[in-house]
Structure formats: C-alpha cells, structure tokens
Design brief:
Belongs to the mitochondrion-specific ribosomal protein mL45 family. InterPro entries: mtLSU_mL45, NTF2-like_dom_sf, Tim44-like_dom. Keywords: Mitochondrion, Ribonucleoprotein, Ribosomal protein, Transit peptide. This is Large ribosomal subunit protein mL45. The chain is of the alpha+beta class. The protein has a single domain (3-315), classed as Roll (Nuclear Transport Factor 2, Chain: A). 38% of the residues lie in helices and 19% in strands. It has helices at residues 3-15, 54-60, 71-89, 110-137, 155-172, 175-181, 184-195, 299-315; strands at 24-25, 202-210, 218-226, 235-252, 264-278, 289-294. Helix 1 (3-15) packs across helix 3, helix 5 (155-172) runs antiparallel to helix 6 (175-181) and helix 6 runs antiparallel to helix 7. The longest helix has 28 residues, at 110-137. The protein is globular. It starts with a helix and ends with a helix. 32% of the residues are buried.
Length: 317
C-alpha cells in the first residue's frame, strides 16, 4: 500500500468521524492574522485502545514474500511506514485528551459538576498510569533506571516559547519558522493564511506580558502513548499548556502606516498543544512542534465521545 493510503488509514483510525468532534482553534484567528480554517481535529477519548491496531498496520504495509525481498528490507519498509504514520499522527489531537475548563465553564448543576470532575479524575488517573507504563518499558532491566526521562518541568517553558515564536512568525509572515516549529497540517493552514493576505498589508504582534499568574501557565494534559502495538512503533508525547497573556497587535498598510483602529490589546487564555515523537529504540525525543490551541472539554462533548470510545475499543480488540 502506498504511503498516502497508509496515512489515510491512520487518519481514519485516529480521527473517527464524529458529529461531536471539537476543533483545533487556529491561534490568533480572532485577531485578524489568520483566516478561519475548516480543518477538523477530533478529541475522541481513547487510550490504549485508541491507537492504530496491529491489523491496520499489517493491512497498510506492503505484502512482500521472502523470495521478493530479504527480511531486512521488509523490516525497513515496515519501519518507514510506521514512521510516516507517526509524522501524520502529530497533526492530530490524541484521542482521550481532556482539557479541564475554569470553574466558569463547569456545568451548572451540582450533580453534573461532580460527574464532570469524576470523568476528569478517571482520565487523569489513566494518563498517569499510561505515562508510567511507557517509562517502565524503557528500563533495560527491572533494577536499572529508566532510559526515558519525561522532564515534565520543561513543558511550560517549551509551550510558552513555541507560542511566542509562532505568533511573531505569523505576524511577520515568516514561513520558514512556521514550517520548522509547527506540525505539518497546522503549518499548512498558517502559511495559506499568510498567502491570502492583501498585498502590501503587514502585521505586528507583541507579547505585553503574562497574566493571572496565580493560575497560569498550567499543564492541563500530558500524554505519552504509542501509535500502535508494534514493538518499535513511535511514541507520541503531547502536552496541553494553558497560557494567559496580554497581547498587542497592529496592522500596517502598503506605505508602512498604521491602519486606523487596528492597534489593539487583548487578554487571552489559550490551551496550547505541543507534540513530539519518541523513538522507542533509543528513547530519544524529536523537537517539540506546535499543534495549535484547543477548546476546553465540556460535559456534553465528553458524553458523546464516550460512545465513540466504546466503539473504537471494540473495533481494536
């Protein structure tokens, strides 16, 4: 099967066409930098069962007999296909990502509030167990230290740096930086928005400062999960970091003059999603990339996606 067909299959398994799917929010879409994208991303909630199945990878990989090619070539092709799927999977929010909203976003009923917190506690517990299991598998032996070190303390500085760099690159139209620090699909959306700007129009962006420092920034989700059950399948590491900031934006016309009324300061709370791949052979990690921002989870969405999770779990048994 061709790489394009393999990517399509991976997308089908990870995205799960859901009527209740949420969307990755294009960063600064509400500030005029970016034309609103119609590219959907799901947050279907699955963990171990929400990965690409062994049968899917076997179906996607080319069938080569021992007479046609040596085993080393077969293994090399299989690894290449899995890595390609891993690259595509970076552009998708991991199924099971739960972004707890502020108290103002909780359900009104006390019973619903408690039920919502119960779902969050369950997901958070699964997240901790899954991450610990991945770390345990990196131990050469039971009595040695794990080779994989998550370094959770680096998540917030990384997300803040990527968030700021991307905003400055988007404002200035720096396509190279966007392609370097963003996932493939997200970079494509941002570059397309730059190409669609009126001729001669320029933008400026400045981070005035971080706000609500008592509560932000904070790690809303940190997930480490393999994309399949294959022995050396790449592992996706994804973090959602909530950032509260005051930002200043301005537009310039073709003569370099400030467009009247365009200079604004806004306060925004953004759930920034950063992702990377981990090599299970060497336990080395790729560079972090920006996936976008995501809306907080709601009780209604979670209930609807729980049905999808159950279906996906049954299909992957």
């Amino acid at each position: 099967m061709s790489p394009s067909r393999l990517r399509l299959r991976a997308g089908e398994l990870l995205l799960a066409n859901a009527t209740a799917s949420r969307r990755i929010i294009p960063i600064f879409a509400n500030q005029g930098f970016l034309v609103q994208s119609a590219c959907p991303f799901t947050t279907s909630r699955s963990r171990q069962k929400g990965v690409i199945s062994k049968q899917a990878l076997e179906h996607a990989s080319p069938r080569i007999s021992s007479q046609q090619a040596p085993k080393s070539e077969m293994a090399q092709r299989m690894r290449g296909n899995i890595n390609e799927v891993g690259s595509e999977a970076l552009s998708v929010l991991i199924p099971g990502t739960f972004v707890l909203p502020p108290l103002s976003g909780f359900p009104k009923s006390l019973i619903q509030k408690l039920r919502f917190l119960g779902y969050w506690c369950l997901v958070k517990g699964q997240e901790i167990i899954t991450n610990a299991a991945v770390k345990f598998t990196s131990k050469p032996s039971i009595f040695t230290r794990a080779a994989f070190k998550a370094k959770r303390s680096a998540l917030i500085p990384t997300a803040k740096a990527l968030h700021r760099t991307m905003a400055e690159a988007l404002a200035s139209g720096d396509r190279d930086t966007i392609n370097r620090i963003c996932t493939r699909k997200f970079a494509g959306t941002l570059v397309a928005s730059i190409d669609g700007r009126p001729r001669g129009r320029r933008y400026g962006w400045e981070l005035v400062g971080y706000t609500n420092k008592l509560f932000y920034p904070s790690v809303k989700s940190h997930r480490i999960t393999p994309i399949s059950r294959e022995k050396y399948a790449p592992i996706i590491r994804q973090a959602v970091v909530a950032i509260s900031s005051r930002q200043r934006r301005v537009e310039y016309d073709a003569r370099g003059q400030v467009v009247p009324g365009s200079e604004k300061e806004i306060e925004a709370v953004e759930n920034v999603v950063v992702v990377c791949l981990v090599d299970p052979k060497t336990w080395t990690q790729s560079e972090w990339r920006l996936l976008g921002t995501v809306k907080p989870t709601t009780l209604e969405e979670w209930k609807q996606e729980a049905v999808l999770l159950k279906t996906m779990m049954l299909q992957n048994r």
